[in-house]
User: Fold this.
Amino acid sequence: MKNLYYILCLLFLTNYAYSQSADEEIFIPADTSKKYFHSAGVNNPVSFSYEEETEEDNDEITELYGDFKNNVVHQYKYKEVFQTRDSLIINFDEQNFSLPFDGKINSHYGWRRYRPHYGTDIDLNTGDSVRCVFNGVVRYANKRVKGYGQVIVVRHFNGLETVYGHLSKIMVNSNDTVKAGDVIGLGGSTGRSTGPHLHFEIRCLGVPINSEDIIDYDNKCLKRNCFILTKKDAEETYNLRSKKYHYQAKSRGIYIVKKGDTLSKIARKTGVPMSLLLKKNKLKKDSVIRPGKKLYL
Assistant:
């Protein structure tokens, strides 16, 4: 009888020790084919799951993150990932989608004044409801982040992460499971902001993606059922500091001002007469132009 008692005690202590060590980290299992996110960073470990979004799995991407950090805004994994592959396929389901906020876009992805702008700014009033775009788990929620102000980052089961910045109130916690359309915060003007708006970003493995390539804001729906992110996209198309991005802008009749540029230098470089350059951009000969500013040719 005593031996049986000792065996039972040993089993209890073993299970207890395992549960304590599991509480120290958050992880995503290697097998995510059924869209499972395992969170062991809470008192009662919970498995978050939902029905398949599409016939194809997105486990390829969620597995590549490797971990689930609550203490950093962005988890940059794309450099090591694209060493062994050229593209990633991200699948969507229209039924598991919601606009973050139905409002007018007042600033797009790209260079803004003299700094890169990696998001889409949506006009709103302080206190307006901000909604989760896809199903997922809150990875990061912080009230004081430089630039972003109050910000939420959600990792989605399709492999993307979405960022919601300048909020006036955060209504979720890290490790909360959320669905498309859930209210996760209230709009505001915290951080580096000149007025109430939602700064919204879509990222994959840290790579910022122009949300307007995925979302049709006018028709309030997704543009397609899948999105392919290539190595070239990560290094050039969406990298606002790359030479390729500047070349593509020029081919569309746009010149992005570089350090040391003057209007006369730009006129010589592009072959556009100074008078036309001034007229198209509503400038004067002595106007100050800063690096990053877009000029129409």
In short: The helical segments are 2-22, 59-65, 78-81, 231-237, 243-251, 263-270, 274-281. The chain has a mean pLDDT of 78. Residues 2-22 form the longest helix (21 residues). Residues 129 and 186 are 5 Å apart (CA to CA).
